[in-house]
Amino acid sequence: MGHRLQRLVSEATRFLAVGGVATLVALVIFNLLVHGLPGQPGGPMHGWPLSSYVFANLVAMVVSYRGSRSWAFRHREPVGLAGGRVAFGVVNTLSLGVPLACLAVSRYGLDLDSGLADNIAANVVGLGLGTAARFWALRKFIFVRPAKAQARETAA
Predict the structure, then answer these.
(1) Are 91 and 141 in contact (CB under 8 A)?
(2) Please, are residues 67 and 60 in contact by the beta-carbon 8 Å criterion?
């Protein structure tokens, strides 16, 4: 495997691991807010699944940034305001629209409101659709290669 492909696979693997931890954080918060603890009729935000999903994912975004910056893209330099935090927030907030749309269609279009339906719509279908675009955007616009590495590759 070539060095560039090996580096891409390594970054993608770390990106997915960080995303997995952030997703777990969001999943737990979302389900507690909307569906409550087992045996409860619903969580404190049962009637507001979209707001709950946004809140849960904003918390997870903090986890995701820290893991992306410290581990997944540690050898890349962040660009933009506040070490890439602003651009990271913009990319993640925009990509949040995909799972929110899936959740909205499931909840309000198909009238499905079970925990299983919510999680399949938002955390399987929606999250799956947004992950590849987010990986590309983070690599392309936020955690760019250091100038020295770019110059070496251009010269080679």
Answers:
(1) yes
(2) no
